[in-house]
Amino acid sequence: MLKLFILRHGEAEPLVCDDASRELTERGREQVAAVCRARAAELSEVRTIWASPFVRTQQTAAIVARHLGLPVTTETLLLGDTPASAVLQALATADGFPILLVSHQPLVGSLVNGLCGSGNQHPMGTSSLACLSAEVWANNCAELAWLQHKL
């Protein structure tokens, strides 16, 4: 059984002009760190961290990476408007599971709900962290082990 962790970035600054350069708020940093502490035992299994190139996801991934002592790999594939199917194709050939994906809506919600076949049952707010397990990464083939929302 393979494990996949999916984390939505923390609370970010309001959109002023360039969405890609929005930074985490102090509250967002604290919420990401709190989720990491709450799920420290489970996150200790992570071997690979992939993050969107946007500033807020890089900052979110860096917080997790510090807790785990792992590097962050920037994946342009993890932009919010990327089709979930493209991410599933990349996961099919990926090494280094368990992998943590740090991304945006609507992608994180599409991945969690699509993989679990749960419609829109599992909301992914800022700093929400999901743990899924599956034999293969395809729609309706994963089981949601748990979903941690911001504290």
Structural description of this entry:
- With 151 residues, the chain is an alpha/beta fold.
- 33% of the residues lie in helices and 21% in strands.
- The protein contains five helices and six strands, in the order βααβαβαβαββ.
Concise overview:
The chain is an alpha/beta fold and 151 residues long.
Fold blueprint:
Layout: E1 2-8, H1 26-38, H2 40-43, E2 48-51, H3 55-68, E3 72-74, H4 84-92, E4 99-103, H5 107-116, E5 129-134, E6 142-148
Parallel strand pairs: 1-4, 2-3, 2-4
Antiparallel strand pairs: 1-5, 5-6
Helix pairs in contact: 1-3
Any descriptors?
alpha/beta; six-stranded mixed β-sheet
Strand content: 15-25%
Strand order of the largest sheet: 3-2-4-1-5-6
Q: What is the element string, with H for helices and E for strands?
A: EHHEHEHEHEE
Profile the largest sheet.
Answer: 6 strands, mixed
Poorly predicted sequence stretches spanning 5 or more consecutive residues: none
Outline: globular
Average pLDDT, all residues? 96
Number of strands: 6
Cα-atom Rg, whole angstroms? 14 Å
What portion of residues is helical?
25-40%
Distance between the termini: 29 Å
Structural class: alpha/beta
SS field, number of helical segments:
5
